[in-house]
Amino acid sequence: MPVARLLLLTLLACLGLAARAEPLRIVSEPWAPYVYEEHGEIRGLDYEASAEVFRRLGVEVEWSLQPWKRCLMELESGQADGVLDIFHTDERESWMVYPAEPLSKVEFVLFHDRQRPYPFNRLDDLRGLKVGVSPGYWYADPQFRTSPLFTREAAPTHEANLGKLVRDRVDLVVNDRLAGRFLIHKMGLAGKVGEHARVISRDRLYLSFRRTPELERLAGRFSAELLRFKQEPAYAQLKSRYQATAASLDGNR
């Protein structure tokens, strides 16, 4: 194949999404400070990083925040092109493509009512307790996901989980450390809710795409541009801004 034709085909492939008749549709569930809505605008560390990457790639995006299970259903059915802030699992590989570069790293911990701390050093300490979880969420530690020692009770939102905690309807709540602190601060619960130091599991958050040839190419471009952005001062400033609230709560365990 002549070099000029090869370069033309490569250019057309790269511009394919930019020339779409409709914008790319990306869905996610609110999970502050990574992605959430405030005063009618979507904000968040991972949202703003992703939006900047798409801007640099020249890709127009339509964003939608909705319940997590609906996000997955829309992606699987083809109603959405991608989902923001999802964990990588082998089971999802057949119908999702993940960029090589993650958006954020997270660590899940247990939050407790300060009046009922329930010391937690090993899984057996949870025996007989009720732990608030989020429906459809993936917890990387298989023992925590499947242990019969305690009961897992789902709530429709992260706010609802913390509300149940302070009303003594669950004994503990599992959430990402940064997300939990951010929400505790927002709900004015810093004096009522603390956290355990032990990490249950660590994971990475990605913006995954529906598995099509066009979106697979976009995933590669997104990953490369995200990595470049992360090496710039602008990303460090963005990350620092969203970590500030969590840092202010660091001693409130």
UniProtKB/TrEMBL annotation:
It comes from the Bacteria. Residues 1-21 form the signal peptide. Keywords: Signal. Belongs to the bacterial solute-binding protein 3 family. The lineage of its organism: Bacteria, Pseudomonadati, Pseudomonadota, Gammaproteobacteria, Pseudomonadales. This is Periplasmic binding protein, putative. Gene3D superfamilies: Periplasmic binding protein-like II. It comes from Metapseudomonas furukawaii. Residues 23-246 form the Solute-binding protein family 3/N-terminal domain.
